[in-house]
Amino acid sequence: KPEGVALLKRALDQGLAGLEADEARLLVLVLASPDAREVLAKQGPVAAQDYAERDIIDVAVWRIALQRLIDKQWKGALDLLDRLAAARDRDPAPLGGAKDTRFDDRDWAMGRAHYFAARALVALGRKPEALARYETVVRRHPLSYYAQMSLSQLRELGADTTGLTTTEGASAAG
């Protein structure tokens, strides 16, 4: 949105520095340029899988996917959400190093890409795939916000949730 660009530019003018300034500059480009948004939509998820510093790409691509959901561009949103889910679910570090745990403390985002991908699948009339995605969220991220939302959607769609609770995975892991 134009006001987001103005706020970011003001923060940069007032001395924002370091990594935050780099991220702000990237967001200014993404928010201000339709061409940059399209490039990011196509290249961002790939870069998110290839580079360790992917936080800002994750956020920017999520914003583009969210706008596509709002605009009811289900297929375009689903393509981005599938790529984000794959990048977020990836365990190894990009260069084969230790497990990447930098997203482990971001509980608010656990399962978000799968949840919204399921919403897009429902809108596309692909209910069985949507049900599987909702179940994935509940099983992989049992105590997250999106697990609760997924469980609710499963029930609303008439799925049998017997034995599928948001604490099932947590008790098995603990």
Explain the overall architecture:
The chain has 174 residues and is mainly α. 69% of the residues lie in helices and 0% in strands. The protein has nine helices and no strands. The model is unreliable at 48-54, 91-107 and 168-174 (pLDDT under 50).
Structure, briefly:
The chain is an all-alpha fold and 174 residues long. It has helices at 2-13, 18-32, 34-50, 55-70, 74-89, 112-123, 127-140, 145-156, 168-173.
Layout: helices, strands, pairs:
Layout: H1 2-13, H2 18-32, H3 34-50, H4 55-70, H5 74-89, H6 112-123, H7 127-140, H8 145-156, H9 168-173
What are the key terms here?
174 residues, mainly alpha, 0% strand, elongated
Q: Write down the secondary-structure element order.
A: HHHHHHHHH
Helix content: 55-70%
Global Rg: 18 Å
Structural class given helices, strands, pairing? Answer: mainly alpha
DSSP summary, beta strand count: 0
Distance between the termini: 43 Å
Low-confidence blocks of residues? 48-54, 91-107, 168-174
Helical stretch tally: 9
Mean pLDDT equals: 74
Overall spatial form: elongated
- Biggest sheet: strands, sense, closure? none
Strand content: under 5%
